[in-house]
Structure formats: C-alpha cells, structure tokens
Amino acid sequence: MKKTGLNELRKDPLLGRWIAVLSESLPPSEYNGENSREPAKEDSCMLCAGRESETPHEIMRTPGSSPADPSKKWTTRVIANFDPVFMVEGDLGRRGEGMYDKMNSIGANEIIIESPHHAVEPEDIGFEQMIHVVETYRARMADLEKDTRLRYTLIYKNHGRSAGALYGHPLSQLVSTPVIPKRVKEELDNAKRYFSYKERCIFCDIMREEMRIEKRVIIESRHYIAFCPYASKFPFETWILPKRHNCAFQDIRPEEVEDFALILSSVLKKLRSLFPGLAYNYFIHSAPNRITRKDHWHTLGDDYHWHLEIMPRFLRTTGFEWGSGLYILPTSPEHAAKFLREV
Amino acid sequence: MKKTGLNELRKDPLLGRWIAVLSESLPPSEYNGENSREPAKEDSCMLCAGRESETPHEIMRTPGSSPADPSKKWTTRVIANFDPVFMVEGDLGRRGEGMYDKMNSIGANEIIIESPHHAVEPEDIGFEQMIHVVETYRARMADLEKDTRLRYTLIYKNHGRSAGALYGHPLSQLVSTPVIPKRVKEELDNAKRYFSYKERCIFCDIMREEMRIEKRVIIESRHYIAFCPYASKFPFETWILPKRHNCAFQDIRPEEVEDFALILSSVLKKLRSLFPGLAYNYFIHSAPNRITRKDHWHTLGDDYHWHLEIMPRFLRTTGFEWGSGLYILPTSPEHAAKFLREV
C-alpha cells in the first residue's frame, strides 16, 4: 500500500533534528499487541528471482551470468521502497509554521536487493556477489548525487528482526534526504573543527593511532582497517575505515571496491561466528552531496573521511541512554577486538 | 555482585560523547541467547517492604504512616545501585591516552524505590504516593548538587521490559556524572544560542506557542502543560513543561511538587489506558549543577528550563535512525495529543 499524502519534515527547534511526519497517522490500535509481522517466507517473497514484475519500480539491476535462467538473470536489483517516506517528485517547500520550521519530505527511498536468492547473505555466497553489492552501493550514490535537491544519501542495512529487518530476503536500504541528517552533521562539524585545530583529518589520525596501538584492530587489508573504536557506543561495534583519505564513498576506485567487499565480508563473518543469529545494523557515512560540499562546512572535503559502522544490537536502550546520550559498554573495545581477531 | 574494578569514562573523539567502559569485560557468551533474565517475582524481590536489610546501602527514606507495620514503615526509599557504573569514591583523574581522553567513572548510581508494594505503580495508589516520589526526586537532586565533582544528575524511569526495566518493583533510577551528558549539553547549547538570538527562553516560547495553537496540548494544570512536541522523535512522545521559568528541578516549590505529581499521574494513566502494558521511559532534564552553572554555557540559568520527557517504546530503531539521527513519526503529534486528550 503506497502512501500518497504529503509527508513532511519538521525541525526540532531545540535539537535541530529533522523528523519525518507521515501524512496518514496511525491510530493507537496499530501500536497495541506485539509488533509481530513475520518476515515474508520464501514462497511469498516478492524480492526473489522470478517475481520482478511484482515489485515497485526497478531503478537498476546488475546483469547476471545467464539471462535465460531466472535465478541467474541478475545479481543485484535496486527498486523503489514499498512504502516510501521520502517522495522523489516535488519541490522542497521550505516554510515556517508558527515558531517552527518545516519542508516537504522530498528524497529517495530505495531497496537494494543483495541477491536473487532468499535466505542467504551475500557474504556467504562468494566474493563476487559481495563485490556486486558494494558496486551497487557506489553506483546508486553516484547517481543520486546528481539531484541537486538532495543533500545526503545514507545506505544502511538492518539484519535480524531486533535490528529492524522486515523482510527475510537479503537487502540494504538507501534513503536520500533534502537535509543533512543530524548524526552526520555532527560528524562533519566536529571533523571540521578538528581539522581547523590540527590541520589533519581526524579519521586519518584515528587510523594511524589504531595501527600504532594495534590492540583494537580486528583486521587490516591493503586498503582498509577494521577496528573497535576507543569509545564504542555498543559492545563489539566495528568500524571499517579506508586508508586512503577520501570523503566520498562513490569515489572509491575499482581495486578499493574489491578490497572493501573482502573486508566487509570477513568482519561480518567474524561477528556472526562469534554470535550466531546476530542482529546488527551497518551504515556508510560519506560526505554530503558534492553540490553542497561548497558550503561552510565542506570547503574541500579535506576534513571528512567516509567509513562504515557496524552496530551489533545486543542491548536494549533504556531511559538512561535516551536521556543522557551517554552509553555503558560492558565489553571493552580491546577485548572485543581480541575476540574478533581470534575467530 | 558488585563490581570493584575501576570503570572508566572515555570520550568519543569525533562526537564528543562520553562512554562508560566497564572494567570487567563480558565475554561473547554473555550476549548469546535471549537476554531473558526475568524480573524478580514478588516473593524474591528485595525491594519490597520487610527486606530492607538485604538491599545495598540505604541513602534516604520517606517515613510512612505506621512504623510498626512493615508495609507502612516507609513510602519511598533510595538505595545505592546493585551494580554501580559510577563510583562515589575517588578523584576524577582526567588524563590522555594517546590521542584520546579519559577519566575515572566517578558519580552516583541510585535506585529510587517508589513504593513498598511490589506490582503497583505510584500513580495507581493515590495522589499522596506520587507526591512522595516527586519529593524524593527533588531531595536527591538537591543533595547531589553539593558534590562539586558531579556536574549532572539524571533521574529516569524504565517501565516495561522493552524499555529496559529489570525489576518487577516500581522504581526510578538516578545517575550523577562528572561530565554533562551529550544529549543535555546539546539542549543547553542550543537553548543558549536561541536565548542569545531572541533574548527569550526557547522553552517559554514553545510553551506559549503550544498554548496558542492548542492542538498538541494534552492537559494543562495550574503550573504545567503536557503536550506532544511538534517534532516528536517517537509516536505519542509527551513533554511536561513547567509554566514558571526555572532551570533547576530541585528549585520547584511545594505547590509545584503537588501539581507535578498530579499532571505526571494523569499523563501516565492516559498513556496506559490508550496502550495497556505500555513500555516507556521518562527522564527529567534540568540544568547542570549550580557550581558549574557559572561556566560559559550557564551564566544565569536564564536560558534553560527544566522539563520531563516521556518516550513510549513502540518502535524498533533501525540502521536508519542510528545512522542518520533522523526519525520517522507514523502518528502526528496533533493526532497523538487528540487521542490522549480524549481518553
């Protein structure tokens, strides 16, 4: 069921955070009872090979090895979201409402289908498939950057129900927004501040420090390091940082695409062998769209550095974390990295 | 089991967030399997009346109506946390570690037992009990403000297992930290910025705007308004804001204590009658400790305004919210307030 009303983006006047308010409000009855929609089983999954005509609009596909065999016709497909929050058509309509600020919820919501097969993750079916997935990420980000209304593209993955996954099929999601999301803005602002003070990229400094100390590093490849950050928010949180200073994910080179597929696969496999059935999220943080990178916080892109963050979802957040923004880490990053290294 | 090692506070170099890292790291096996510790049943609950000698150190108690009757000996009790993250004893020990910053995890962790009875919430057993709870909050905040090592005291409540509650007994929790937590620091900074620009308190402005518009107001009492914020992060999120401009919760007057007990009870009852079995968190945001209120962001306390935020926990957060800090609201605050008004 597609929503057709106009969703809006509202700005929290206190924290500067944008909130997308859906035009068709759910009544209280929708929240009662367990939120227990089961992920689609394989025989009812529209994302599987052979059911292409039943999905929303296809945006791109990576051709497979055999056009005649339905399960090899494509390796990845990108489709419009079933239930988009951000709408592609329309103008931004920035306006006030009393003392508050709002705008139209313009943007893109896409589903990146990571495999034609239902219950398998791309990292389990071979290196080639993972390269296709990473290359699809890159292609979508490069394409969406051309829309001058859009300021940011976030690619993220929800794996497992407690991480918010709603489908049984392997997929990532993409959202492009007309605003720079708060969490990214904070990183940009703080990286810029660090750069002004030190005249060095904070991510390059973190990478050098972690390679010097070694004890929080999980693996190092030719182009990347994977490590547990010094002040991780969640136990076994892992970051993958490219060694080459580069603010934009879509600018990665072909050999970096391959190497990224390799290190991401290894880290996910390590996490999952330590924690069978692990629920996790990951997301890519990259610089805002080039068109806006000229603005006050992104003169040159020198002060930002793209990376991927993986957040295992073991713990429930409580009033303490929500009220304070301070997190309690029951396993140190040094121990977490050691366990992950030794898998 | 009390932890005796030295927990540490580490600063995230990118986001400025402090993380408390526990000295005794949990191994991966502790995270596998459902996180299924059941809340204590009444017959094994140490927080119930009559088992006072089995709890950690008692910090304060509000006398009850009959010292002879164990269930009426006290109305609220405050005890040290079973498993404290922040330690009362010691110095701050601020120091560097390579490029990073850390300090000792000094502070207070307290449990505010809201009733001598096990499976009942204070708002259900009469107005008097809720007044005792609010008065206990006030007394603890006023007392902890005297410790000059501590910069902030957060009082919060986890109700229901998916909101992080671990005990079946009604309680709130209190954490005092030697740093101003990130979420509070953002509110202080932004409220200060608004004040500099407008020469008015942002919370006073929000209150006036909400009273003018009316459609997001749930109830208004003599001293407070309860409303669903314009850019709520979660559906049915509710704030209670005092009408009198006052930055510090511990400065509320006796008549404001009573009225706060009344409005908080009403709002919780409304939420729970709309959503039976609702899991929620609430927390009080108040100015940092007075001793530090002289610093650059709190010259006069004119630019902050204490309040309570209630967050119903219906939705699972996904990689989108964690990666962007942008939230999707499936029920508008206007609709949510209408449903709550009409209960």
What does this structure look like?
Two copies of one chain form a homodimer. Helices cover 24% and strands 23% of the residues of chain A. Chain A has helices at 127-144, 182-198, 202-213, 254-274, 319-324, 333-342; strands spanning 8-11, 18-21, 58-63, 74-80, 95-97, 100-104, 108-113, 152-159, 171-177, 217-220, 224-227, 238-242, 280-285, 307-312, 327-329. The radius of gyration of chain A is 20 Å and the shape is globular. Chain A contains six helices and 15 strands.
Q: Could you give a short description of this structure?
A:
Chain A is of the alpha+beta class. The first copy, chain A, contains six helices and 15 strands. In chain A, the strands form two sheets. A ten-stranded antiparallel sheet of chain A has the order 3-4-7-9-8-13-14-12-11-10, with helices on both faces. The first copy, chain A, has a four-stranded antiparallel sheet with strand order 2-1-6-5, with no helix packed on it.
